[in-house]
Amino acid sequence: MNKKSEILIVGGGVAGLALATRLGQTMGRLGQARITLIDKSFSHVWKPMLHCFAAGTAQNENDRISFMAQASRHHFEFWPGEVIGLDREKRQAVLGPFHASDGALVLEGRTVNYDALILSIGSCANDFRTPGVAEHCLFIDNLVEANGFNEKFRMELLRAYDGGNELDIAIVGGGATGTQLAAELHKALEIVGLHSFAQTPPSLKVTLLEAGPRILPAFPEAVSEAAKKQLENIKVDVRTSAMVSGADETGFSLKDGTHIPARLRVWAAGVKAPEVTTGFGGLSLSRSGQILVHPTLQSVDDPAIFAVGDCSYIASEPLPPTAQVARQQAHHLARHLPGWLLNQREIPSCVFRNKGAIIALGDYNGWGTLPGGTVFGGGALKGLTARLGHEMLYRQHQIELYGWYRGLMSCLADWIDTLVRPSVRLD
Ligand SMILES: Cc1cc2nc3c(=O)[nH]c(=O)nc-3n(C[C@H](O)[C@H](O)[C@H](O)COP(=O)(O)OP(=O)(O)OC[C@H]3O[C@@H](n4cnc5c(N)ncnc54)[C@H](O)[C@@H]3O)c2cc1C
């Protein structure tokens, strides 16, 4: 009897979980391959919501998808663990030991075989080795960091309530993450004010620092301008052409000598692949550590290794690190991997179809762009269409993973939750 092909997917984010679910429904269900997903954590979250979890304006209990539950319903296997290297000759991924949160060893380090390996380990912010950033800044690249930020934000608010002080927060990076976080923090404080210890909540001073000449550089200039105005209306101090040269426990230093005082300092600029890619058996990498792949999504060094989403880089057609790209690449492999594995058919090039982009500044405003350059949102309706579009993207992702019935039930559960719980995280 022929041995079943082994498909190993590392990283259950936007790309990895969609791919595992789709392959499980086809090859897994038909017994054509053994599909294994490995992730550092036990559950998936929709990363584009991390800034809301950080501010506390969304609460992640309902928004997590358990990998084990998803695997058992969709004919794939899940193992928790961190891949720390590859043995390309033996076609094995190397997993580090798995520890409990108290440090106790739970699983020894081990290896997992593959015939096809798909790397979908995402990305993190890039501090470009700016002095003091690693030691003195917070990041919101994953759920643990977003929850960690939220805890610090709530504690600093408490301190500001008690002392009657202003709370100052500086965010580096005027891209989608930093800009949306600035707005969500204001929204959070507005809602906290409704449940306050004192009648007047402390004031919040958010400074947004962007090295380039405008915020939201991936959007048309009109959107950058409108978003800047909106942020300034809610008293966010937006500073463009502000090159950060260092960070310490009091704030950020800029290249022009200015010091920006900040009790909480967030680094949300730049994108790079996780450090571990340098240990992936000598695979060729981009300058930001992303795995170099052909348009077929196969590594330029090894056709049995694929990379999708933020951790991959197509030199002939660089794509932005977005959820839209990650999903389309996952769908492409879900369609073509079975033929490649079972019938040695070549994988066609993955052609990215830009469907536009959306930015939502809390419920203050929002804008979207369509491929032809049309901009929508903003105006008297405060960008309602764009803000709804943003929400729809998340619901579409949930429905893709859960199926229609459970997806819609999950929307209903979230709606009921808003009737029961405060709309900001208070504990
Ligand atoms: C705050 C924020 C807001 C954003 N907003 C938007 C938006 O509005 N629209 C948009 O299109 N994009 C947005 N993005 C970008 C988008 O989230 C990413 O492009 C997308 O998540 C990339 O998907 P991915 O599958 O490549 O990686 P991810 O979704 O990041 O998943 C990576 C997975 O790999 C796992 N992993 C990492 N290393 C290892 C390892 N060594 N071993 C095992 N598992 C590992 C992680 O635990 C994680 O589950 C935003 C990002 C952030 C941070």
UniProtKB/TrEMBL annotation:
Residues 6-330 form the FAD/NAD(P)-binding domain. Gene3D superfamilies: 3.50.50.100. Its cofactor is FAD. Keywords: FAD, Flavoprotein, Oxidoreductase. InterPro entries: FAD/NAD-bd_sf, FAD/NAD-binding_dom, NADH-Q_oxidoreductase. Belongs to the NADH dehydrogenase family. This is NAD(P)/FAD-dependent oxidoreductase. It comes from Acetobacter conturbans.
